[in-house]
## 1
Amino acid sequence: MQEHVDATPERIARAEGNHEIVDAIIDRAGERAKLTRQFADSAIDRMHKRGQLTYAQWYACDWYMRLHAEAMSAPRVVAAYGDGVGGGGSESYGQPRSRHQWDARRKLRQARAVIPAQMLGLFDRVVVADDMPAFLNGRQRARFAARIADTAGLLAHWLRISV
């Protein structure tokens, strides 16, 4: 059993209460640990805490992330080879499984139309996938944050949230 290795004090300070220590034995690749720390803050949460996003911009990003999860929650089925042939089976063929999911997909398409085409992939990467790219210096980080904030501002304006 290996000693508890915690996150750096800087990382813990950045999370500001959005983390917890879980008492569980984790066995991974032959190494065992008694405790693990689970962080619940996302890239947009950290950008908001640093003052790079206003509350309205953060809210728009959070709304978009949750809407994306609602719209994509049901798995898309292209083919199923079970339970007989023909007839009206339970296959989905990519169609929404409920009225709620259909509404979420419609809203997501409308929201994506507001976001500039050249920013869609990057915005999805940061907001939906919570994948922040690495930067060489603070200037790159600031330019990147400004681009995300501008896009979030467009979305907040479309949602009629004061920026």
## 2
Amino acid sequence: MGKHDSQFIPPALNWAASDKVKDYEFNPQQAKAMLAKAGYPNGFDLDLWYMPVSRPYFPTPKPIAEAFAADLSAIGIRVKLLTKDWSAYLADRVKPPGFQAFMMGWIGDYGDPDNFYYPHFGPGSTGDLGNWKNPKVLELLDRGRASGDKAARAKIYAEVSEILHGEAVRLPIVHSQPLLGKRKNIQGWIPSPLGSESFEDVSKS
């Protein structure tokens, strides 16, 4: 379905990725030790919300949530899986007190790092994280928008990725690869990178 990635930008935008950001290490014993150090030697209870609808980034949300829960239970985090109507899910996650943990995804509007960072970490975009903000990230995102130099922007977004990896307020899981298909008798269709298809020049033979 897609490729797991440790960064918020998809592989197609890896010119703006950081070489320093790697997958979080899978180490249950270390995770248990860190929980104990944080004051939770017996783990804790966690509500994990999963969407009730299939989306391109999570085509089967419940089994994916169950897999998350299984990994978390292995280190003592007792997960309760919850869901609700899609419109209520979207609205309630940004209403205090919000959700303890939840699944969400993003269908990019255009192929630029800004479109994968600003909507999730820019001003007014973290209501679902208790209005979390990092002044350095906000500064870098504004600089990235203002610059027209690709090399400079690459450095900016690499630094953003490094900061977010350390903060771990949103955890990237996978970048899905949308599938498109057409019949042999269709001509003139060029798939749009913006996700909005124009059929003005399409013909059928």
## 3
Amino acid sequence: MSLGTTITIEGDELREVFARLSPHLPPYLRKIGPRPYNGLSFEFAPFTGRENKPTTPQSFYDDPKLRFASQSDDPTEHLVRTAARTIMGDLIEAARGEWRDAAHVADLKAVVGNAPDRWRTYERELKALEAAYSYLRTPEAAKEWPSALSRLVDAQDRTSEAAVAFDERAEEIARVHDQHLYADLGHAAALARAGCPDAGDWHIVSADQYSNTWFSDWNTSVPLQERTRRLVAQQDAHVAKVGRLSGFPG
């Protein structure tokens, strides 16, 4: 069996490696098996993310049969002990990867709260805003221009409020993502595991953006509140221009 580019071990030596490792294997390990080309695969009991980070047990370091042996003194012992350290290192690294993902998901579950409801509210209000704005382009709107504008303003306010509400949750989620920067799961995948399968559609930017009070025009990675403010400003500018050109009070 190859354990990489420099270690190949078979037969009695391999059995001896696992005999020496056996007392030190972590309780969450379920299975060890070969990978198709080289190295080993590890199967673990599911992590909750609330356990301590997986580490090599102290007993492994204290075991005199696993301490370093030079190749010149004893080639067989050197091979067995090097292979054992390689396997334990790979095992712990694999366990840490799964644990990091589980910790990411666990922390998201703690903050996501009613984010799905808040996002659906935003989507509903945005759709209503788009409808109110589109209506202004119809001949019917000219017959009730003040009322149509009033409905647009109401829709703008509701959409802005929904954006602010979602941003409150989005900021907490973004901070969790930042805390788990080295987890393997992508943001949408982690949120899906946290019970939000539609989170791939959510507008969440980096955590530092939520504390900003000013955004340059070229910055497109802005919170939902700022994105909505820009949309409302565009609508207002268009309505004002129509008013000037048409004689309607803008």
